[in-house]
Amino acid sequence: MDNAASVASVNYCRAWIGSRLRRCLAIAPLLSVCTCNAADAPRHYDLPLHSVRVIASYPHDVEAFTQGLVYLDGLLYEGTGLYGHSSLSVRKLDDTEPLQAVALPRHLFGEGIAVVGERIVQLTWRARTGIIYDRATLRPLQRFSYETEGWGLAYDGQRLIKSDGTANLEFMDPHTLQRLGTCTVTASGKPVASLNELESVQGTLYANVWHSNHIARIDPISCKVRDWIDLSEIAARFAGRADVLNGIAYDAEGQRLFVTGKLWPELLHIEIEDQAGS
Ligand SMILES: [Ca+2]
Fold first, then answer.
1. Domain limits for position 149
2. CA–centroid distance, residue 51 to ligand 1 (Å)
3. How far is ligand 1, taken at its centre, from the CA of residue 83, in Å?
4. Sign of the torsion formed by the C-alpha atoms of 184, 188, 192 and 197
5. What is the whole-number distance in angstroms between the Cα of residue 110 and the centre of ligand 1?
6. CATH number of the CATH domain containing 243
7. CB environment 175-192: b (16+ within 10 A), e (fewer)
8. How far, in Å, is the centroid of ligand 1 from the Cα of 155?
9. For FRET with 104, which of 12, 52, 141, 170 sits at 20 to 30 Å CA-CA?
């Protein structure tokens, strides 16, 4: 157990509200850096491109630099990044105030998260260090290491799937955290770089592509992109006042797909249009 992190958990909850203004002021200068290179869609070649419709909007903490998002059993789990601001929290969908939250040590930049049974796994960016928490208490239980950067993380019921900012995915045993294999994601034969937040949805892997407004839907066996989801219109709502699209969560029981972004004011329940555009 990481005692320092446990104490930080309590302090973080107490300081959550009081720190909001300070955190906002600290994050604000980053926006100009983070958004200036926001790119257009990844080249989708000859693959279908689906538009979406918004079913419902829920509040999202505008200070949450979202790096990992999971919805399970009526609760939303969120991992956030930035040095000195990284956290793991759990809350209800319609309330941005966390039921529980834990702050990461200042030298760790939080990244993707996945829930495996009664444990939560969280990656960090460049420290090559992951943290395992008790799901009920968010108490840190242990750390583990991996060989590449940590970006997105998903659990498909059998394996953890990790992205590292390249086109590569790593498959890991969810219990031993040992590497089971890797693959390179391609679209029409070309690697798809900058794979970020991940979600396993009914056997298909959804992946944010950093600095794009598109989600790749990937066959996790072949690692080929089947098609793309176009979120350009949604992202345009927040242009200039939030960072990039990042954050996919799936409510398997209610069959609801949620997306958000870094510092976005909203988390959206969306449905994918069946008809593909160009
Ligand atoms: Ca996710």
1. 3-277
2. 20
3. 21
4. negative
5. 14
6. 2.40.128.630
7. eebeeeeebebbbeeeeb
8. 9
9. 170
For residue 102, the CA-to-ligand 1 centroid distance in Å is 18
Burial class of 75 by CB neighbour count within 10 A (0 to 12, 13 to 18, 19+): middle
Question: How many domains does the chain contain in total?
Answer: 1
Candidates 253, 201, 187, 181; CA nearest to 49 is: 187
Ligand 1 center to 113 CA (angstroms): 7
pLDDT in tens, 64-102: 999 999 999 999 999 999 999 999 999 999 999 999 999
Query: pLDDT tens, 190-240?
Result: 999 999 999 999 999 999 999 899 999 999 999 999 999 999 999 998 888
pLDDT digits (tens, 9 = 90+) for 2-25: 333 433 443 343 344 334 434 434
Grouping H, G, I as helix, E, B as strand and the rest as coil, residue 37 is: coil
